[in-house]
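Before a computer can learn anything about folding, someone has to put a protein's shape into writing. The outcome of that step, for a single protein, is printed below:
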Amino acid sequence: MERELYGREALFDDDGLAARLTGLTPHGARRVTPEHGDDPPVVVLTGGRGMGKTAALKQLRTLYREITPLALADCEDVRPPLDPGPAWTPVTAVLPELATQLTARVHGARPVPFPRLGLGLVAVASVSWRREDESRAQRDLQSLGPVLATVDGRGDAATGWVTKVLTKLAAGAFDAVAPMAGMIAEATVETVLEESFNRFQRRTAQWYGSYPHAGGNGRIGLRQLAVDFERGGDLRRRAEDHLVLALVEDLVQAYGGLARGARRGRPLLLLDNAHTPLGRRLVEPLLRRRAAGVRDRIAVIASSRVRDHAGLSHAVRHRLPEVAHASHWTRSTEVTSGILAVALTPLDPEHVRTALDRHDPRGRTPAGLARGVHRLTGGRPLGVALLAQAAGEAPEPGTLVPGALLDSTVELREDRPPLRVAGELLARLLPDQRADVLSVLAAAHGEDSARLLATARLRGRLDGDVALRMRDALRSEGWPADPDHFVGDPLLRALLLHRLRFQDGGPPDHAVWRAVHETLRSAYAAGGACPSEPHRLHQELVLGAAEDCVTHLRVQFARPDVLSWLGSLRFIASAPYPRPPGRTGPDPRRDIALGREPSSDDERAALAGLDERAAELQLQLRRLLHAVWLLSDPLALPDDEVIDKMAHELRQLSGRHPTGHAVLWDAATHWPRDLREWRAPSMPPGAAPDGGGPHA
């Protein structure tokens, strides 16, 4: 089932980008003057996985499929059949599929015929035929049946062609030095033209007269097309480009001449994952044709997961809201300037609230859950959709926090059992990637610590430098970089750490989780591979041991550089919380932050031997550390009482510090404001948050 889309009005509104490209409002309510006449841009929607590119293209298909010829192809999902044969390539596989979809009947217009494409595909398919083997020819022509049926409606026409083609070959006296592919193609084209094309349709063969070395003769052009295809390399690419343009020309002719007044709007080509080699093979011939001044009436909307793809080198770039009423696009002399690259933007908190309301119409979820889901997902539509559905299906939604939603299950299809949200999200965001490897590396702060983890925990999993291989894999998928985290995207990192925590079944020991973080703790300790006290204490907190962290903060508190002290507090408290699965009710850190939880034996031992003032500071910093830890956790929800308590502790500390009282006072003022606005505590307090911390 296609999911509800939010925040995409600039694309789907009656005066939105799709309407201005196709000349039709969604559902065909009325005509719209095309924004760029007969020179439209190829629109490429850009964004990483889960940003809703595929969902947007599917929604366009739903809105326009009955009112204008339309085709949708996923350029990343074209697979060869069990017996593909020499004539199979991704291009020759996808073109018949596009033509078949485009020829579907729409309101008020005859189906689009594809005589030029049909002839070219038949000529190319014939390169694998032999006199002694009719079965291959039968299979190839039958596979092209839907395209050829746009010209000849007889369902069994292809069966007769095969016999006649092979008979011509057997009876003919062919030049011994002529390429066999060309001879077969010529015999095939002659037979198809005689058997299936009327006298007007036969003229379409002349379009191939523009093919190189054809000399204006269409039949020679078709013969050369087949020869080039069989030879491979750049010659095959030239042949495939001409086949793409054959589809384009058939669409142009359907919308020109006498048919112009009979058709409304423009045909629509939707190409998902067009950053792939196949996507470029489909788009680039059209771009070159348009750059040469040849006009058409085809709307093309594609998607690219990679924003900085070489094929977008000279594209005009805008964010989606910027093209709501005008595309602000003009062509330059570069071929790829024919592209308008539109970056899909994350959803805002109000969109998330709308998604939650749709699944929870009675408002049973906590008031802050929508903002918490937005903070965790960064507004990534796929994450918002699954977490909102999980909230609506939860048996006790009143106590939900984002972390509990990751543990939940959702029913995506009636014929499939419910799926765990975290696992389903990770599978969609990292298809065909090594989640087992990345879940370990997600604990790392940078490439050095990732390489250390790879050496200690992932030996033999992959060849070469595992950390660099996985870094490059993330980059190739368009995932953002972050100097403080090996996995830069907060949602992806949270999902990978969730997998690390629970992949071994979780309780009682969480063995894999502990082993990974103990490896990092040892490396950061004095004498380790990369000693760093803040990083070691960060790992102590990940492992649930707060005593050393509090003691370190107390010992370092009196030093003059209180800004660095605050930075260490924020960094140490950014540690992932070692939570058990499915926990409901108040977070244990809350009672400690509010001073309601009695000290443990270890914490009482840390107080032993301290004078009254130092012991008071130790307890105060214990409360502050747990408050910042809870309030910084993207899997939890901010708590006003804890925020107020944190501000109180910081103001108290301001009065105790000999020189840094102003900085601590500013933190007591600005950190609560940051947290209530769903931002990380700013450094220095009051500055725009940078998310920074020590690197390793």
The CA atoms of residues 225 and 239 lie 5 Å apart.
